[in-house]
Design goal:
32% of the residues lie in helices and 14% in strands. With 352 residues, the protein is an alpha+beta fold. It has a 5-stranded antiparallel beta sheet. Strands 7-8-9-10 form a 4-stranded antiparallel beta sheet, with no helix packed on it. A two-stranded antiparallel ribbon has the order 1-2. The radius of gyration is 37 Å and the shape is elongated. The relative contact order is 0.09.
Amino acid sequence: MSSQDIPEENLPAEQGAPHGAVKVADEKNPFADPGLPPHEHRIQDIDERAAKRSERTVALLFTVSMLATLGFIASYVAIPNDKSIYVFPIGHVSAMNFALGLTLGVALFCIGAGAVHWARTLMSDAEIADERHPIEASPEVRTKVHADFKQGAKESAIGRRPLIRNTMLGALTLVPLSGLFLLRDLGTLPGTSLRHTMWAKGKRLVNMNTNQPLRPEDVAVGSLTFAKPDGLEETNEDFQTEIAKAALMIVRLQPDNIKDKRELEWSHQGIVAYSKICTHVGCPISLYEQQTHHVLCPCHQSTFDLSDGARVIFGPAGHALPQLRIGVDSEGYLQALGDFEEPVGPAFWERG
């Protein structure tokens, strides 16, 4: 059925101003204005039953999108990540990846298809010529924009078609849940694990190079020694995680050269133990200046004074290196007297 077969009184009223006359080309204006073609009414404009069919189609697409989003979540939870299936002609693929890609693709496609079908069949399709205007937003322009927005909202019929509105809102609300469920792969929340290391009272200091416990006489004045907690071996599954927090550097100073009172109290016979992890971005510190008692991070040149509480004297690091309180046990080996009193490494989101 076309608009030519409908009586004139049944056709919707034309929107906007009538089309202008075609201008004739001349020397000053060599390009003639073709104007706008006559507006052809769609079947949905003249038949409410056709409009209802389009409305149900759009609602069906939005509903399928919601079901596909729920399928995405169910697939993520229920399908084992090591399960594979055969899909022709692709071959063997991960069942979870295939299900996630299929359901998310259907969810997004149906939202897009529903929006396109809604715009092409139910929203106004009348072409309106709008003259160019200055860039600045004059009061008249703002008034016109507000009027156009209200007119567009009216033409979308979103108020008169609650089925489309409600299913669209449902589809747009559920789709972001897919991204939230993907965050599960980031692992569990760190909790307070970033605040604690393997160091504890009675834990011996073990030389990283010899893998032997350290005695005070093993650390010479002016030397730099790297240590780890006793019991932490490279064969441990969590070695990299733990050493990234527990790595220690040990320096022996003359007690008279230690300026910080707490540093002196936490040392043993001038032996001080500080975290090896730079407080800027977590690089391992490995450069030591014997004369100045400064340690330098090779990544961004943050410099710390080990004779003055390992405070920052140069570079982008934000705070001093944490110190580990040490002593000796009954057998004469260096031991920790507790854990670091503050988190090691750079600042993080849950630092108090």
